[in-house]
Amino acid sequence: MSERKILNESMGVGVSVGGASLESIGIQLQSSMLQLKGLYLSPDGRGVDYGRIKESEEFNRYREIAKTLTTVDVMKESNEEQRKAFFINVYNSLTIHGLVDADVLPSSVLEMKGFWRNTCYNIGGYILSLDDIEHGILRCNRPHPSDETTPLFSSTDERLKLSLSSFDPRLHFALVCGAKSCPAIQVYSANKLERALNGATRNFCSQEVVIDVANRKVTLSKLFLWYFKDFGSTVEELLAWVSNYLDDNKDINYLLNDVSNINIEYKDYDWLINKL
Length: 276
Fold this sequence. Notes:
By secondary structure, this protein is mainly alpha-helical. It has 2 domains: 5-186, no CATH class; 201-266, no CATH class. The chain contains 10 helices and 8 strands. The protein has helices at residues 22-40, 50-54, 57-68, 80-100, 115-118, 130-138, 193-208, 223-226, 235-243, 250-255, and strands spanning 5-6, 20-21, 72-73, 119-123, 126-129, 210-212, 217-220, 263-266. The strands form 3 sheets. Strands 1-4-5 form a 3-stranded mixed beta sheet. It has a 3-stranded mixed beta sheet with strand order 6-7-8. A hairpin with a 4-residue loop joins strand 6 (210-212) and strand 7. Helix 1 (22-40) runs antiparallel to helix 3 (57-68) and helix 4 (80-100) packs antiparallel against helix 6 (130-138). The longest helix is centred in the N-terminal third of the chain and has 21 residues, at 80-100. The two termini are 24 Å apart. Pfam families: DUF547. It comes from Amphimedon queenslandica (Sponge). This is DUF547 domain-containing protein. InterPro entries: DUF547.
């Protein structure tokens, strides 16, 4: 994938053609995603039947909804929570759309060159890739992990106005990249976003955080390594953040009494496609 691929481009590329509200299109998107999730995802949300989705009428209907994203006015009558839920859902659905549309589904998402940089939707006239949505909008225009100094959107980029103003680290456990080690796929709504993000974070941490008190060792997902600065500036701040989302945090709090003597290890990340 060497060039940007706009998966909903039939209604025009780079030109806003309407002003439909984010809320109205967001509801349609949520409804379609919930239908696909119920039919073609594993009960835990971590496996996707891409083959069956590709041949389904439900996905054909989803494609039509994706086309209407070209008409949305993201800033019209919407607040920050609505935009956050909207772009989380768009990111996850664009990931699935990109993998379903692949000529040949590879064994690993890493085999799809430039997948996150080049898989795009036209949203209200703005061409937005997976990277643009994650780092430019949801992470409040923070640098990509591969570049620790340069914000994704330049100061003259018109898409900068779409960036959220308040950063929420919990989004890392709501976004799905198509790999087996990714968080579970959920569908988010603005009026239940706080509870849903807490639940997604707790669910991920319960599976990916291992505490060995005897050896003073904490094992974490590599998401915490790649996005270390999103959780704090020190190991102590990172682990203190994690402790808030563990059902039983007495062990990690015990270790935090002497943070200088904690061993941090990171699990290998399984990049194999999360297919059923």
